[in-house]
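Hi, here's the filled form for the chain we discussed.

Project: internal
Contact: R.S.
Residues: 88
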Amino acid sequence: MDERPAHFHRKRERRSRGLRQPERRIKAKRKQLERRISSSYTFMSNRSLTNKAEIKTKFDILSRLQKCFSKQMLLCSTRFDRPGPEEV
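And the returned structure, exactly as it came back:
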């Protein structure tokens, strides 16, 4: 009998060449989706910052109008409370 080891086929033990085509497509789609999601979160966070600024300016405008309106009401009420020249 021959005492040499059996013939070894190198081709049977293939090295991985990375991802196969369907796996590459899946990975590419996943990256694309992640990019879309991250960009929408960026947009939402930027939008929320502008909303906060808008709310602050609207609040400032409303508070100024309210102060102005209360001053006008105060002036109007003092005008009507004073006796006119006919009443004296």
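Let me know if anything looks off before we file it.
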